[in-house]
Amino acid sequence: MRMTFQQVKKKIESMVPSDIDYEVDLEAASIAIVTSVPEAFSGTDSLASKIAKTIKRRIEIRPSSDILMDSKEAEAKIIEMLPEEAGLKRIYFDAAICECTIVCNDPGVAVGPKGATIRGIRDEIGWIIRTERYAAVESRTMHNIRKYRQEYAEDRKALLRKFGTRIYRPQRPGEVWCRLTALGSYREVGRAMHLITTNESKIVVDVGAKPTNNLNEIAPYFTAPELMPFENLDAIVITHAHIDHIGQLPVMYKYGYRGPIYCTPPTRDLMVLLQSDYIKVAAAEGNPPPYGLGDVQEMIKHIVDVEWGKTIDIAPDIKLTMYNAGHILGSSSLHMHIGEGKHNIVFSGDIKYEKSWLHDAAAVRFPRVETLIIESTYGGAKDFQPTRQEATQELQDLIKRALSRKGKIFCPVFAVGRSQEVMIAIDQLFKSGKCEPVTVWLDGMITEATAIHASHPEALNRDLRKQVLKGGDENPFNSTWFRKVSGREQRESILLDPSPCIVLATSGMMTGGPIVEYFKNWAPEPNNTLCFVGYQADGTLGRRLQKGFAEVPINDGGQTHMVSINCDLITIDGFSGHSDRRQLMDYVKAMNPKPKTIICHHGDPHTCAEFRKDLASTYRVRTFAPKNLETIRLL
User: Fold this and answer.
1) Is residue 2 pLDDT above 80, yes or no?
2) Which residue in 229, 436, 488, 501 has its CB near the most CB atoms, within 10 A?
3) Strand order in the sheet with 178-184
4) How far is 576 from 388, CA to CA, in rounded Å?
């Protein structure tokens, strides 16, 4: 029997000495102890850790308002006390959690010997202090999110309390059961959406859009009766920030959802960037956007940050832990512990079970697993890809060939993940001296997405993290050949410039965005090269080109005209953020413990069916490849 909030408060009261001033509050999944003497709960074998072990909940120690200095005065005090050598850049206050973030060039200097400097500042201003290294290219998205959180701190504090109150609601009677309902991405790629329903709770995982020109298939099944009404949902959990997993999330807020979203901080930042761009692209293409910036801002208020490896409660009977999925920055596999040990589910999310230039391989060790819900994008029997090293060599050879004949190379890329991988491969080539460098133009959101990568070094693999933290020439994203396309006028000058260059441009499946402009102008020229480095879904322009069409229709300002394909068209598979067939099978083999049931999704109908069948015969487990709108009872 789980503890009620009142029982939690009584247990804490029995453990805290009577002379210590404190209050107990709810902060979403965590128990917040608000006190004027935070030091009484910290230190070796701290009181806070003893309380956490006893009540089996996360504990956050928050300073009470009577010891918090006003933010403007606190900012002045920080500027006064912080050594100039720290290179202070920005200061952010988040009053919802009483936290101050100091962004500077050298956090080590800011912290001081044995933490003396930061402790001195904390004692003066009262706020919890975090230090953060300033990225060489500042992310405007991250800055705006922090300022917005600062502005709406009181609203967010109230929301966190509301989320916590819902988690600690009275327990329902009856047997424990659990079901999965497929609301998108089942026997298809795109519009990912899953609903976990128990006798106590309803949890949504991902709310994506489908990359297609068919307007009836873009959104997941919002009108499914199991999902309605939205106010009955306990939480939304996001695996990662690709549009096919987050592109329709603000629609939930447009139509009344006001519950929490749980995701990693990098996912939060990338998600806001991509959703904001999604609105712009839809409007530019003459399609009414499914939501507005106001809906995105409402969504930001409701985001609860979750670090990898930290277990939190997201519903009365569900605990969540996120693990690295290796796919893109901040991407996560989800472990859900249901009903005090009754059932354990792992959502793989989109996974890469191989160390890439950016990330470590997806995690495979979990506390317990009865059901695995796994992506199947490249799960077909013949879906094998080169290694990262082989793909890098292939791309570098292509660049040398194309530049030797004075041609242009243009790559449709996803702003997040593939862009940064390709940038590192190009950087290696140019620094090796084996090829004369040319300008590499970054068009679309790539520069901003790269700035977010540089601002979250903790989510990168160890080698790249070291390079990013060293800065200067060590950081591959800082190299002088990478240049941002600042707008339409500069894009037009690049299109008219006869000199060789490389262009990385969004969107990754050529469903819109600046890549279409380069395609219209450069595809007819035989010296040029169109290079695909990412998955092209059915129904997209990218997939039609891969099928070998000699010419394709393009909508240009309301008029349709045909574009002839005379350029080289090359696909390099090894840069995908998805695991191929071999890696997917190895992932399941390496999982510890082994799942008893595997459910396949996020692949075309034939691939899902084939992968399901082969998993069943290879690992002797129960497998399913359901259709959208089907429900499977897990417990």
Assistant:
1) no
2) 501
3) 303-305, 261-263, 235-237, 202-205, 193-198, 178-184, 631-633
4) 9
Alpha helices in 190-339, H assignment, sequence order: 243-246, 249-254, 265-284, 293-301
Q: What residues does 305 pair with on adjacent strands?
A: 263
DSSP code for 226: T
CB 378 within 8 A of CB 348: no
Residue 537: pLDDT over 80: no
Q: What is the pLDDT of residues 390-436, one digit of tens each?
A: 999 999 999 999 999 999 999 999 888 889 999 999 999 999 999 99
Mean pLDDT, the chain, rounded, equals 93
Cα end-to-end span (Å), the chain: 19
The type of residue at 531 is C
Check if the beta carbon of residue 398 is closer than 8 Å to that of residue 489. no
- The secondary structure of 513-567 as a DSSP string is STHHHHHHHHTT-TT-EEEE-S---TTSHHHHHHTT-SEEEEEETTEEEEEE--S
Q: How many other C-beta atoms lie within 10 A of the C-beta of residue 23?
A: 12
What is d(CA 96, CA 304) in angstroms, rounded to the nearest whole number? 11
> Looking at the predicted structure, is the pLDDT value of residue 519 above 80?
yes
Of 288, 287, 320, 180, which is closest to residue 635 (Cα–Cα)? 180
584 DSSP 8-state letter? H
Secondary-structure class of domain 172-382+581-633 per CATH = alpha beta
Distance from C-alpha of 420 to C-alpha of 375, rounded to nearest angstrom: 23
Using the predicted structure, report yes or no on whether residue 536 has a pLDDT greater than 70: yes
Phi-psi region of 499 (alpha: psi -120 to 50; beta: other; left: phi over 0): beta
Is beta strand 303-305 parallel, antiparallel or unpaired with respect to 622-624?
unpaired
Overall CATH class of domain 388-575: alpha beta
68-153 has the same fold as 5-64? yes
pTM, entire model: 0.93
d(CA 428, CA 296) in angstroms, rounded, equals: 37
319 bridge partner residues: 313, 337
The neighbouring-strand residues paired with 555 are 560
What CATH number does domain 5-64 carry, 3.40.50.300, 3.30.300.230, 3.40.1400.10, 3.40.50.170? 3.30.300.230
Residue 204 reports pLDDT greater than 90: yes
Block residue for tokens 């530049």? 403
